[in-house]
Give the backbone structure.
Amino acid sequence: MKKNILNGIFFLVPLIITIFNLQVFVARFISPSIAQLIAYSNIGLLLTGILLNINHPGEYSRTARLWIIYYIIYFSFATLASALYGTEANILFSSIPFIYVLAFYIYLKNEDNRLIFKNVILYSFVTSSLLAIYLYNINFDLDRNGIYIYKLDRAEGVFGDANNTALVAILAFILVYKNNFPKKKYYKLLKIILAGFMFYTITLTFSTTGFIVFLISIILLNHNFFKGLKLTAALSILPIVYLVLINIDKLTSGINLVGQQRDKINNVVNLLSFNTDKVNDSGRSDLLLNLLEHVYQHPIIGNGIDFAISLHGHNTIVGVWADAGIFTLIFFLFMLSIYFKRTLNLSRELSFFILSLLLTMCIFMLSLQTVINQPYLIALFIYIGYIIDYPINTQSFPSTEKLKNQ
């Protein structure tokens, strides 16, 4: 028990701080100095946890180990590029995701720790998504340091970004949906209510990527439904659903939408009608083209550490290429392919569950530059690696009851 508490302080406290973006809130509303102290304290806690747990018994994940190899390759090429081309780099800041990789690679080798991690990430993601609803309702905007005088058009949550909020809400929905709550009626009702709130958070973000990914996740999570008579019934109502979605702009014409809300609804219509040239990507294509120009200048070794972030490229995959060159990109894609390949070798239920998590994060890589820079997402990738190599024995996510009984 004492060991779990200590490990919770060393590993899980920094994780929770990043999930709720507490460091940014402290910097904005209390003191930048205290926020900096929190950042250094997080690193200190993780490094202490690594030193105290590195020799503890447990089997390491060969899948999760790929992240360590990736970061070694990344920093080798990106550091060389920074030196050659004079790219400014904050080594300590840039190494934070790698520190989280090492920390949770060591922490999660213990099976009990994996169960604790699952519960922490589940409850934290759910709470973060619920906070997004509350912050949207009170018109709180992190970028404007408080309550905004005009009605917000999208829920940006604790991250100050609608797409990041949508990503976490979808992950929370998947985790809630597959969590094996105790078999009592009020727990089933709680599960339905929480899933409903997660869906509501996703709709409030008005994220085009989020909408597409959520539909994919729903299909994967309900794969057993799509067979036999159920499949026939689903296919029969599909044209009706398509007609509703393709006319959703007209159906919502009487609703008082503000800002980007109407544009995001039109994006859905344009995607479904294959008018992709009319999709409003909020300028992301221009940012990506600008990033690609720099990629083509130094395609072999890249432009330097965190170069893509400095240009706001909004694409994780191209960002890897821009930072550390083509060989790093090839290994990065190889690593993701290994994740998918090994996932397909798992049991049917577990395979579809892991696929829904992986596809959610990988698809968001196409519109976010921060997927592999957010410590909580990196930690989730490490956890998935362990689940792939050491599958859980139930058909769904293990319940919180097991933790209580230990």
User: Anything to note?
Assistant: The first strand starts at residue 140 and ends at 141. Confidence is low (pLDDT under 50) at residues 398-406. Strands lie at 140-141, 146-147. The chain is about 70% helix and 0% strand.
